[in-house]
Amino acid sequence: MRKAPTKGEETRALILKRAFAMASAVGLEGLSIGSVAKSAEMSKSGLFAHFASKEDLQLQVLQTAVERFIERVARPMLSEPRGEPRVKAFFENWLAWAESADLPGGCVFISAAAELDDRPGPLRDYLVKTQREALSTAERAARIAVAEGHFRADLDVEQFAHDLYSIILAYHHFHRLLDDPKAAFRARASFDRLLERSRIPHFGRSNS
Amino acid sequence: MRKAPTKGEETRALILKRAFAMASAVGLEGLSIGSVAKSAEMSKSGLFAHFASKEDLQLQVLQTAVERFIERVARPMLSEPRGEPRVKAFFENWLAWAESADLPGGCVFISAAAELDDRPGPLRDYLVKTQREALSTAERAARIAVAEGHFRADLDVEQFAHDLYSIILAYHHFHRLLDDPKAAFRARASFDRLLERSRIPHFGRSNS
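Predict the joint structure of the above. Result:
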């Protein structure tokens, strides 16, 4: 039986929740112990009782993001039939992810990527690990679609994952920065082309 | 005849040069009047004689980036033959852009995008304008390739520009964050697929 959370665990969860939403808008670097403490209605020293340093808080925010990404993007696709339906669910869940109510500023991973690419350290290492895992998940889903006979046997699944992620990155850029009302339409059109060229070609309907 | 730059113009150009390289690594938000002044070996008040505010400096750094992007990416493609060769040159120049010696931290536009997407104001407006212009340049190049009979007449040139930019965004992510040695190979493979599906189909070699 799962134990009820202690008061300390509840406080920690509340802080992370607030810090997570803030990181979406101002980035991981924009998180300050002071502003997070204020948002959680506690003192700075109260916050330090739960997080050893700003970097510790940032790391735990990224870990929270990974947990939620698994919950909302990776896990739900498993209830879809193996093969192309699962790949499609993964893509649609990922598009929806950046629109989550608790991510008012869009995907934390994408904004963290721009912040951390020139800053070596444990935070960057952890981010890279999460990105590689997301790509592996896409590769695995594509590999299953090959095994199911939906995708061609000679499909380069690494390239597939790269191309899928390109579309997600572009969606974030066109939707959030350019306010392009066609951003989702463009993303789905690109993804449809990616599916088309990944499928087993049907003889008798070439190029269709 | 062009006049020799005044001492003041030279100083301003030096400050912008240093600020530009710094922005590539630490982002536009990371630029502080103090750190830029230090890098240009002058006092903060000396710097304020050239730039009214931090935002003014950031805006001029973005303007510098646009000038260099035009010089290195957009203009050189014009010496290539009209049509597909020009589209290819644009793409290759754009890949090379993020590797420029004076951009040690990669493309300033991409890092600025993550910083500014949630910060309304003149800086964000200017960035959006530059991004739309880069996309229009890609669209125009694709439209010429249609007119030259290289690309299909029913090509959606907006989608083409979107897809081309997706590949650039992914290249930045895979190369700079993930240190993926195949980043350029993957980018070119995606671009080749984009060209293939944009070309006029050749009868007698379907799907090739």
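The radius of gyration of chain A is 20 Å.
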